[in-house]
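Section 5.1 Outputs to date
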Amino acid sequence: MCWMMLSESGGSVLLAGRRGCRIAALGVMVVSLSACGVMAMGAPESRPIGIGLARDGRLQYFAPLCPGERVASAQVTDYETANALWQATRPSKSIRQGGRITVGESSEFERPEVSTSSPLPELLSVGLTFADGQNIGARVDLREVPQDIAGTDLVLGYGGKKTPEKDFRARVQSEFC
């Protein structure tokens, strides 16, 4: 038999039995995770997105594609408010085939949907929608993107580590395609 005492707003609740303890443990876990601020919501097998910087320091991102996949749109939102910061559809051939997307650079798209505003917030969600409707995305903390990768072939990939773009693409394609 399991007994658990919980206190909420000064009150106490005594739970007995397995079911009560399971419910209480689940509640404690949810409260503990929500106190952490950020909780990973994606599946552990989600495909990683490469993060880079253009020569001028603007954020870039891409997803290595599997055979037959094509990018249909790109979007960037404020991570904390979910407000759209930039969105574009009908990309150029290089973007459709998995090229780097520079946030706010709508010239690579036929239809800019939402124009970017400056400055961008520190926490962003970057996303891609493929032609088949599949969506992938990543959380980006701009404070953690090192400026020394600007204009280079280095990207932040697995675990936020700097990696040559071709190595990142090869690893993702071998693991996800």
